């Protein structure tokens, strides 16, 4: 599975900021992203929606806390069903 190339102007600045925070394979919750980005909660939700539409992030269920969803940047060669990469926190 390969990642589609996205031009710089295709994503809003907030989505670029969130994508940079998820660099390196870090797994973060919505709350973590809001805190680290200093963006409004609604802005982060919109950025995550745009990143999911472009297939740039993976959204996972958090087994430690079912109320939260985990987000991770999609990397080359990372399979969607590969749970080791997601839960190695």
Number of domains: 1
By CATH's scheme, which homologous superfamily applies?
Winged helix-like DNA-binding domain superfamily/Winged helix DNA-binding domain
- CATH-defined fold name: Arc Repressor Mutant, subunit A
- For the record, the CATH class is Mainly Alpha
Topology of this structure?
Layout: H1 13-21, E1 28-29, H2 30-37, H3 41-53, E2 57-61, E3 69-73, H4 83-87
Antiparallel strand pairs: 1-3, 2-3
Structural account:
The chain has one domain: Winged helix-like DNA-binding domain superfamily/Winged helix DNA-binding domain (Arc Repressor Mutant, subunit A). α1 (about 15-20) packs across α3. The chain has a 3-stranded antiparallel sheet. The chain is built from 4 helices and 3 strands, in the order αβααββα. By secondary structure, the protein is α+β, with helices and mostly antiparallel strands.
A few lines on this structure:
The protein is of the alpha+beta class and 89 residues long.
Provide keyphrases for this structure:
single chain; 89 residues; alpha+beta; Arc Repressor Mutant, subunit A; three-stranded antiparallel beta sheet; 4 helices; 13% strand; globular
């Amino acid at each position: 599975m390969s990642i589609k190339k996205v031009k710089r102007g295709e994503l809003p600045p907030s989505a670029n900021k969130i994508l940079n925070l998820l660099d390196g394979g870090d797994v973060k919750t919505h709350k973590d992203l809001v805190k680290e980005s200093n963006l409004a909660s609604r802005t982060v939700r919109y950025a995550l929606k745009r990143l999911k539409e472009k297939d740039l992030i993976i959204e996972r269920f958090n087994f430690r806390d079912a109320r939260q969803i985990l987000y991770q940047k999609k990397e080359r060669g990372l399979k969607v069903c590969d749970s080791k990469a997601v839960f190695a926190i």
